[in-house]
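Internal tracking record. Fields below are filled automatically when a chain is submitted to the structure queue. Please do not edit lines marked as system-generated. If the sequence contains nonstandard residues, flag them in the REMARKS field before resubmitting.
Queue: standard
Priority: normal
Entity type: single polypeptide chain
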Amino acid sequence: MTSNKTTGSSVYAALLAAGLGLAVAGCGQSPEPGATDQTFRSEIPGTHASNDLNPVTAQRWIDQVRLGRGVDHQGQVPDAMRTDTFTHDDEINVSVKVSDAPVGTHVALEIHNGDSGEIVWTDERSVDTDHSHLTFRFSADDLESGSYEARVIVGDERVARSLFAIG
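SYSTEM-GENERATED OUTPUT FOLLOWS
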């Protein structure tokens, strides 16, 4: 008489083989377009540009970003002048509070069109010993009505963003 008895170890082996088969089948597949399959808290090894920074260090150097219609004597947009909605008659001020960044560190502001993502305005400043705030100014009249994103970049790292609109 033939026995059809299955042992526990045989079942375990079959399940293990099936699991390995699924894992191997998933190797080499690309993630969906636009999906992030891995995140990094540090730079990718082998990046040796002169302005290359660790993203955590760059983030630590920028304490605050404010948008508004004017600045105080320190170059900061005060609470009373803060806004994220501008008219074409406004001068847009973006103040960036910097701390612990070495003198000469480059801080850039890029203004991106909210619909297309295109850079429509950009400027760069260097950190000096006399200022804890860097101020960027431009006329709202230079841009079309619509939504925008202000991106603050230190070295090669994007560290902050603010959304605003011109109407």
